[in-house]
Amino acid sequence: MIRKIIHVDMDAFFASVEQMDNPALRGKAVAVGGNRERGVVAAASYEARKFGVFSAMPSKIAAAKCKDLIFVKPRFERYKELSHQIREIFYSHTDLVEPLSLDEAYLDVTQNKQGIETATEIALDIKETIKREIGLTASAGISINKFLAKIASDYRKPDGIFIIKPHQVEKFIEALQVKKFFGVGKVTAEKMHKMGIFHGKDLKRYSLPEMLSYFGKQGKYYYEICRGIDNRAVNPNRIRKSVGAENTFSESVFTKSEIIEKMLLIVSTCWKRYDQTNAKAHTISIKVKFDDFTQITRSKTIPLAVETETVFKDIVLQLIDELTVIQKIRLLGCSLSNFEWEERKVEVEQLTLGF
């Protein structure tokens, strides 16, 4: 089966979040984690990478490579918060989402919720939505399987997109350096180089028994991927517990009329995502973050599931009406949760495999 797989990878995620939240760091060489004397770099901004600073590098070496490097403490709760928002954007297109970490995931969009014809259009929509709603950039790779999609996402970084179409697979892999194969580490690459294997075309010269003899069980994987074979399915590893949307404003809001105006737009986005699931929610929540970064939430649970956008909107507005606003608001959000699930209806259809 030919699938349409997207691999989305956020660009320098931790460092980009710090630069987004602190304008003084924008355009600067930033390292998240460690300090000038000890520790390890967890993430580096693209400005720092120009000096050879990368994640997993000892902080002391990083500081020596870039004298103006700014070290900041990691804020994992903040990264998790944004990662959750990003995944909600993924789920608006497909429930087949396999997160690999806070900042990357596979999506199977062979069939998608919005009826978009090509995987390229979906990837572009995801990138634009992340940029518009969250303020960060992502890169995307698109191909027929997970192996190729992950490699493709690294080709146009940052803020890029790269597609490997079915008819391009063989030629692409034959020209690909084995050290860039996902799953081929430094030691294995060196072993392959000693065997005269530098590119995919060199790897294809070896039979399956030879691969198993030289590389053990992993030899089967190498034998298949150099031929473009990767039958691993995108494996969603959790049941969704909520659907939400939120927005951080470029200019904070204060008056009730401003808050309602902004929230109604967020309600519309949230409902579109909820409407594409098979869930029936009983709890509606709002989230408010003030200029001093303090945050409050308010919720209401109802006995009958939320069936219409009007009911959802009315309860959100009721929760807002009960708010006491004491300072300007930088972020508003709303969500639906406490789900019961309908049985999914499966329809057999001829797939359009546009890339």
UniProtKB/TrEMBL annotation:
Q: Which Gene3D superfamilies match?
A: 3.30.70.270, 3.40.1170.60, 5' to 3' exonuclease, C-terminal subdomain, DNA polymerase, Y-family, little finger domain
Catalytic activity entry: DNA(n) + a 2'-deoxyribonucleoside 5'-triphosphate = DNA(n+1) + diphosphate
**Known InterPro entries for this protein?**
DNA/RNA_pol_sf, DNA_pol_Y-fam_lit_finger_sf, DNA_pol_Y-fam_little_finger, DNA_polymerase-Y, DNApol_IV, IMS_HHH_1, Rev_trsase/Diguanyl_cyclase, UmuC
Compartments reported by the entry: Cytoplasm
Binding, Mg(2+): D9, D103
- What Enzyme Commission number does this protein have? 2.7.7.7
What are the UniProt keywords, alphabetically?
Answer: Cytoplasm, DNA damage, DNA repair, DNA replication, DNA-binding, DNA-directed DNA polymerase, Magnesium, Metal-binding, Mutator protein, Nucleotidyltransferase, Transferase
Q: Which BP terms does GO give this entry?
A: DNA repair; DNA-templated DNA replication; error-prone translesion synthesis; SOS response
Q: Where is this site: Substrate discrimination?
A: F14
Q: Does the keyword Transferase apply?
A: yes
The record's Gene Ontology cellular component field reads: cytosol
Which chain positions lie within coiled-coil regions? none
Q: Which GO terms describe its molecular function?
A: damaged DNA binding; DNA-directed DNA polymerase activity; magnesium ion binding
List, for all copies, the residue spans of the domain called UmuC: 5-185
Top EC group: transferase
Give the main location: cytoplasm
Cite the record's note on assembly. Monomer.
Q: What is this protein's record name? A: DNA polymerase IV
| Species this protein is from | Marivirga aurantiaca
